[in-house]
Design goal:
single chain, about 180 residues, mainly alpha, Arc Repressor Mutant, subunit A, 2 domains, three-stranded antiparallel beta sheet, about 60% helix, globular
């Protein structure tokens, strides 16, 4: 059975049910102006559909988003230490350990102790891991071409500019929270 592109409850499912109105009519949230609510609604829908599309494309090749990023990182950094991999991916070491254990069990990676520093575990892709990495690269290309690549060049430039502003605002708020 094919899942509805907006989830099991249709597009309104994102806001918890049909009481929240049409697809792009956001819920009325006190303290947020209507224009910001509308942008938030569109952004939430885009992130929701974005994840669904990528998961669907990746699952057709036996992968998922987290593993795709990990495979890409390992393909670029053959022999990377597990510690450095966790830092580059901004993930906790136990999270990386669990992901790598699953991949090792599936024959996608091999791990070994660093001969110069026994505290470090090094990782590399096996041939099967390199093959899955190539498959995920094809998935990623298809995904980008179907989404961002389908936009006109001026629209992509404007979208990048706006996302840059959003990223700056988020980073500034995170910095304030850390202070």
């Amino acid at each position: 059975m094919r899942m509805h592109p907006h989830g099991p409850g249709g597009p309104d499912h994102i806001f918890g049910g049909p009481d929240h109105g049409p697809l792009h009519e956001p819920p009325n949230i006190p303290g947020i102006d209507p224009s910001s609510q509308s942008v938030l609604s569109a952004f939430r829908m885009a992130t929701h559909l974005n994840r669904q599309l990528f998961m669907r494309l990746a699952s057709d090749k036996g992968g998922h988003p987290g593993r795709t990023v990990l495979l890409t990182m390992l393909a670029k950094h053959d022999g990377i230490s597990q510690r450095d991999l966790a830092e580059k991916m901004h993930l906790a070491r136990p999270t990386i350990t669990i992901m790598l254990q699953k991949m090792e069990h599936e024959g996608l990676i091999e791990r070994w102790d660093d001969p110069d520093d026994q505290r470090l575990t090094r990782i590399r892709l096996t041939e099967a891991g390199r093959a899955q990495s190539r498959d995920m690269g094809d998935v990623y290309a298809r995904y980008v071409n179907a989404t961002i690549g389908a936009m006109t060049e001026p629209d992509r430039a404007e979208f990048a500019r706006l996302l840059g502003l959003l990223n700056d605002n988020i980073a500034a708020t995170l910095k304030e929270l850390d202070a």
